[in-house]
Amino acid sequence: MGNIDALAAMISSRAQGSADGMIASSFPGLWFFRSAECRPTVKASAPTMYLAVAVQGRKRVKIEGMELDYSRRHYLIVRGEIPYEAAIVDATPDEPYLSLGLQLPPELVVRTLLEMADEQEAAGAEEAVPPAFISPLDDDLADALCRLLMSIDSAPERRVLAPLFLKEIVFRLLGTEAATVLRQVARGAADRDRIAKAIGFIERNATKRVTVNAIAKHVAMSPSHFAHRFKEIASLSPMQYLKRLRLQHARATLAERNRSIGEVATAVGYASAAHFTRDFKRHFGVAPGAYARGLF
After folding, report:
1. What pLDDT is recorded for position 75?
2. Any residues with CB less than 8 A from the CB of 91 and at least 6 apart, and which?
């Protein structure tokens, strides 16, 4: 069985037999979807960039004047924070529409681009970038997705290996034509080294009280210019990047037994457990307590 067939079988096994609709996984930001019938157009908006892979049936997406159909063995990339309309146009009880959805954290895309020292990004920075992209699924990407799915059922593997496979998925996508869409979250080559240094500083101090002024001072830039260039390159403000980093750390910390939500919130840099809970649920679609209960 090839990697694409193996991925299709894994998605099918996790979605078949479930009620129609979205099926959450034990890895926040990863879900499955099933529908045994065609569905009319609905309006939606993704909170962040995401990847969708269809293994059966067909879906139609309308976004910023584009109409895109993706079906069996194709994937869709949507830039995120953009309203769109979607309809399932091919699904039956015998052959329901089946797909996988996976959030692609902007901070991970930015970090991977900077590590790759992507020179093509600067050359294409002024080009119009589509809000979405569809392509046939290739064997390398399917292989990385298979490894991610195999890792999420074991708490240690989900904690240690799943984030590595997620990064590999981003890496694989950056080697395809979909890179044009992903690269949009890291625009502009000027000041790249300083922004990379700033990201390293944020990551090392994510659990501490961090301010824009302190980060800007560390990279020898004025606070206003630093904040402007950071958002221009990373498509996130420095504080948004910090918050998403803390939430990623919280996801890993929740995998440790005997940690209360308040303890996890404090460990990743939040002063308020209620604030942490709101941010976690908004970002991952599940409350931290419910996520932790699903791990064990």
Report:
1. 93
2. 35, 36, 37, 38, 39, 57, 58, 97
